[in-house]
Design brief:
It is a single chain. It is built from eleven helices and 13 strands. The chain is globular, with a radius of gyration of 19 Å. The strands form four sheets. The chain has a seven-stranded parallel β-sheet with strand order 3-2-1-4-5-6-11, sandwiched between helices. A two-stranded parallel ribbon has the order 7-10. It is of the alpha/beta class.
Length: 333
């Protein structure tokens, strides 16, 4: 697909992955409408950090996917909708589950309905590997049962089912992408690689505080995840209503991950496990390892960035911005 002059609407464009996707598409000449969550601080999230030329090429809009009327307006005239807006913090989902339903489920319905009524040619809905829960088999294929092991994962499962239902019920050209653990520059400290790097470079941190070191994750660099979004957007009608995994197929435990990061950065600080960072026992997902063969067969997509190189790029970004981070290095829920 040639993106030049294509009309693209991205929800959640102010976030980690969304900002990278918006940046790439703008640089390819697409006409991108980038939705940022409304706030009173004159902020468009990570979009405000883009080079001026790239940022000026975007149509910046503030709003909320929970508003169906605004979604109707913003979807009109668009060729492709990338729906990334979501509440994603797992710990906070235990505290405020209804807000996850409002944004992740009802917000998705609003976007799907608006895209249907506007006659959008393709919608890419963003899922998560968390919908699989603790693996019953690995690597995890798209046929793996979905398990709601946290309110967050349950809300995303519901959103996935809505996307499938709209494809079946209304012939909506929607495809679901399930990225495994994406990492890279601009990621929040809620994510494990970012929280480790924050503590590595913060002089006030004399130790690296983590939760359970045994869970294993499949970490995929953000540039590869962006390419996965573009790849599924190019798939034909046989993909409508389908879900596609995006991951490397290589797992690493959190304990091994922190040692890789310490090696890359030259950090010698000890690692301490904190009880507050550990999920409820029946809610922790112990292993997420992607089988992305379905996406590879359909589009040729493969993850190209190995973990150590991706961490080097991410570490460089964190080292440059450590002076501007929030003052408290404690756990973000």
């Amino acid at each position: 697909m040639t993106w030049n002059n294509r009309k693209i609407f991205i929800t959640g464009a102010d976030g980690f992955i969304g900002s990278h996707l918006a940046e790439f598409l703008a640089e390819q000449g697409a006409e991108v409408t980038a939705l940022a969550l409304y706030n009173s601080f004159d902020s468009h999230g990570w979009l405000d950090t883009l080079p001026a030329k790239t940022r000026d090429a975007l149509k910046l809009v503030r709003g909320d996917v929970r508003d169906p009327h605004q979604m109707n307006t913003l979807c009109k005239g668009q060729d492709v909708v990338f729906h990334l807006a979501a509440l994603i913090g797992i710990p906070y989902s235990y505290e405020a589950p209804s807000s996850y339903v409002a944004t992740n489920v009802q917000g998705t319905v609003n976007v799907l309905t608006a895209a249907r009524d506007a006659g959008v040619s393709k919608i890419v809905h963003t899922s998560t590997s968390e919908v699989y829960g603790t693996a019953q088999f690995t690597p995890i294929t798209e046929e793996h049962p979905l398990q709601g092991q946290s309110p967050y994962s349950a809300s995303k499962t519901s959103a996935d089912m809505m996307a499938e239902a709209f494809a079946r019920s209304f012939d909506l050209p929607v495809v679901t992408l399930r990225p495994f653990n994406t990492y890279g520059p601009r990621q929040s400290e809620r994510a494990v690689i970012s929280t480790i790097l924050r503590q590595v470079y913060d002089d006030a941190c004399t130790e690296i505080r983590l939760g359970d070191l045994l869970p294993s994750r499949d970490f995929c660099f953000v540039a590869d995840t962006v390419n996965a979004f573009l790849s599924v957007a190019e798939l034909g009608a046989s993909s409508f209503g389908q879900a596609y995994n995006a991951g490397t197929g290589k797992g690493v435990t959190i304990g091994a991950l922190v040692e890789i990061i310490k090696d890359v950065t030259g950090c010698s600080n000890p690692v301490t496990q904190e009880e507050t960072r550990i999920r409820p026992p029946e809610s922790e997902v112990m292993e997420l390892l992607a089988d992305a063969q379905k996406l590879q067969d359909a589009s040729g997509w493969v993850a190209k960035t190995d973990l150590k190189n991706g961490i080097k790029i991410t570490a460089d970004w964190w080292r440059e911005r450590i002076e501007s981070v929030r003052p408290d290095a404690g756990y973000i829920t």
